[in-house]
């Protein structure tokens, strides 16, 4: 069983920013920042070919009815994941190229390793961001503290080796209870040892529509001038295309209700102003032809609106750090709050 280390436990926060919320003051007076995120996992999932005990049961086309195979290959599942890397990912890349938008890739290192042309395209041609989504698409919640640290380091270094870009943002989603609070410390250590960048942001949270700062428990006894805190850029489940394969989810496999929900979410955040919207994607899900058309409808809708900043999470974090630099005890940093 994993050991809980108090110095890495981030406190819960039930208050947030209150009735007036928080205006992130996006560049060029944009009303909303839109973050498309492609979870690239194909080839990093469970497979006996990778030494796992069973095939991948999660987030593929047959959903909960698909099941898995113990100690054997399950070609149905394998090939649904392969569709994502062979076909779906390129369909999505063509869509974003059409609109001229940069997105963030939550990249699993093993998946990138098996499709190097995709990693090369993302970094060298398209200018998309590479963020750290782990060595493989597996839970690692029970690693001890040293193996936990090593996992973060190894995944960062492997993504740099494969794609040419060192990930300055992180979203694992399947980590130990210690990992989210350790990330700045691990990155700082790597910075000293390897000269790699420090952590720019973490997306290991789902509790707001705007970025915010958190104080780090292990920095509590440092002078304020030496504290660095951690910037969180929240992620979301409700707009995630993974809900096509889980309940309660988008009830139309063709995606019409998906489009409607994305538009409703956008309209609400756009009306409020100063917020960000996540659109989490998977190439084996929204990369399917019918669902990509549903996504295209949403893209077309927001492309006609004024004051929409479609951007990477790296650029969101860079803007926020510049406009609201860290200030101990403040969610909004130099902006107060």
UniProtKB/TrEMBL annotation:
Q: Which domain of life is it from?
A: Eukaryota
Alphabetized GO MF terms = hydrolase activity, acting on carbon-nitrogen (but not peptide) bonds
**InterPro entries on file:** Glyco_hydro/deAcase_b/a-brl, NODB_dom
Its BP terms in the Gene Ontology are:
carbohydrate metabolic process
Which residue intervals define the domain NodB homology in the entry? 81-169
Transmembrane segment boundaries: none
Which named protein is this?
NodB homology domain-containing protein
Query: In which organism is this protein found?
Result: Friedmanniomyces simplex
């Amino acid at each position: 069983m994993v050991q809980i280390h108090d110095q890495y436990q981030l406190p819960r926060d039930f208050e947030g920013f209150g009735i007036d919320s928080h205006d992130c003051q996006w560049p060029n007076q944009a009303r909303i920042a839109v973050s498309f995120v492609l979870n690239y996992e194909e080839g990093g999932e469970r497979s006996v070919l990778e030494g796992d005990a069973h095939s991948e049961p999660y987030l593929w086309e047959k959903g909960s009815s698909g099941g898995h195979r113990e100690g054997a290959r399950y070609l149905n599942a394998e090939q649904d994941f392969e569709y994502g890397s062979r076909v779906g990912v390129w369909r999505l890349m063509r869509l974003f190229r059409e609109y001229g938008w940069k997105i963030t890739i939550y990249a699993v290192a093993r998946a990138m390793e098996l499709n190097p042309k995709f990693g090369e395209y993302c970094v060298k041609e398209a200018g998309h961001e590479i963020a750290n989504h782990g060595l493989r698409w597996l839970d690692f919640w029970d690693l001890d503290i040293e193996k936990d640290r090593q996992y973060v380091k190894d995944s960062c270094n492997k993504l740099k080796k494969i794609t040419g870009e060192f990930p300055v943002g992180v979203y694992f989603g399947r980590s130990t209870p210690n990992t989210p609070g350790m990330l700045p410390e691990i990155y700082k250590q790597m910075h000293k040892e390897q000269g790699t960048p420090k952590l720019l942001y973490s997306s290991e949270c789902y509790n707001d529509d705007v970025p915010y700062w958190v104080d780090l428990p292990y920095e509590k006894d440092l002078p304020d001038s030496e504290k660095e805190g951690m910037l969180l850029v929240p992620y979301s489940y409700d707009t995630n295309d993974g809900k096509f394969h889980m309940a309660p989810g988008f009830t139309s496999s063709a995606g019409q209700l998906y489009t409607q929900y994305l538009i409703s979410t956008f309209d609400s955040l756009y009306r409020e102003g100063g917020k960000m919207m996540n659109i989490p994607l998977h190439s084996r899900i929204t990369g399917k032809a019918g669902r990509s058309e549903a996504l295209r409808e949403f893209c077309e809708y927001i492309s006609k609106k004024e004051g929409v900043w479609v951007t990477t999470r790296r650029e969101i974090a860079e803007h926020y750090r510049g406009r609201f630099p860290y200030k101990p005890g403040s969610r909004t940093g130099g902006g107060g709050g």
